[in-house]
Amino acid sequence: MFEPWVTMSFSLTMGLCASFRGGEPERLAALILITGTLAAIVFAWAVGLPAYFVVYPGGMVVDAWMLVGLVWVGLRANRGWPLLVAALQIVIMLAHVSKIADAVASRKAYWAMTHLPFLLQMLVVTIGCWSHHRRTQRIGWYHPWRLA
C-alpha cells in the first residue's frame, strides 16, 4: 500500500501547479481533491483507519461529495480533462457500491479501486494545469467556463 507521504507529495505538487499555473477549473478541481484528502484524514483520526473488510462510511461520504463537485466542474469547464477526473471519481464510488453489494469481495481490490484512481486524478489535474499554461502562452487568455 502507498505510504501517506506519496499521497501528500502528489497533493502538494498538484496544489502548487494549480495555484501558480492553472486557471479557475484547475484550481477548483485541485481544491476539491485536496479538501477530500483532508476530510478523509479527519475521518480516519475520528473513527479509525479503514480495514477494507467493510465499506468505510467516512470515505464514502467524502467521495460522494467529491463526485458532485468534480462532475459540476466537468460539465461547466471549457476543458476536456475534468470529465476524465469525474469519471475516475465514478470508479471510486463504484468501488463503494460493489463492496456494499458483495461484502466478501477482496480487500485489495476495494483498496485499489478507492486509491489508485485518486492518484490518477491528481496526475490528470497536474497535466491539465500544464496544458492550460502552454495554451495560454500559445494563444493567450481564453474563457475558462462554457458559456452555454
Word description of this protein:
There is one protein chain. With 148 residues, the chain is an all-alpha fold. The protein has one domain (11-136). The protein is built from five helices and no strands. The protein has helices spanning 4-21, 24-47, 57-76, 81-101, 107-139. Helix 1 (4-21) runs parallel beside helix 5 and helix 4 packs antiparallel against helix 5. The protein is elongated and about 55 Å long. The model has no long low-confidence stretch (mean pLDDT 90).
Question: What is the string of SSEs from the N terminus onward?
Answer: HHHHH
Work out the count of structural domains: 1
How far the N terminus sits from the C terminus, by CA atoms, comes to 43 Å
Main sheet overview: none
Instruction: Determine the fraction of residues in helical runs and give it as a percent range.
Output: over 70%
Q: Give the number of DSSP strands.
A: 0
Our count of helices gives 5
Structural class: mainly alpha
Radius of gyration: 16 Å
Describe the protein's topology.
Blueprint: H1 4-21, H2 24-47, H3 57-76, H4 81-101, H5 107-139
Helix pairs in contact: 1-2, 1-5, 2-3, 2-5, 3-4, 4-5
